[in-house]
Design brief:
104 residues; mainly beta; Jelly Rolls; four-stranded antiparallel sheet
């Protein structure tokens, strides 16, 4: 029987590779500091080099006064290379939930 849970990055406060192998993206919680908007971009990549529209998995903008936003996917989004998160906005952060893709 397979695992019945996902992994969490815990709170990520700066742009970084959060998973460096093939995986499946389940959710992204975006957090603001209450006074600045947060923009989170998620790419299928393991570095900042080469991130563009061709490997973008998701992008979220959360208005500062909302403080929280994001998405849970009913079916996960596949990432062949890994998950690289770009964070912008003063005090912005996110929490990514993922699991490892099954390989043959």
């Amino acid at each position: 029987m397979g695992k019945d849970y996902v992994f969490s990055t815990h709170e990520v406060t700066g742009s970084a590779c959060v998973v460096d192998r093939n995986c499946r993206l389940w959710s992204c919680l975006v957090i603001t500091n209450g006074s600045a908007n947060a923009v989170i971009t998620i790419h299928d990549n393991n570095s900042a080099v080469g991130n563009d529209a061709t490997n973008k998995l998701a992008e979220f903008t959360v208005v500062s006064s909302n403080q929280y936003g994001g998405r849970n996917w009913i079916k996960p989004v596949g990432a062949e290379v890994g998950i690289y998160v770009t964070i912008s906005g003063t005090g912005a952060s996110c929490i990514i939930e993922y699991d490892y893709a099954l390989t043959a």
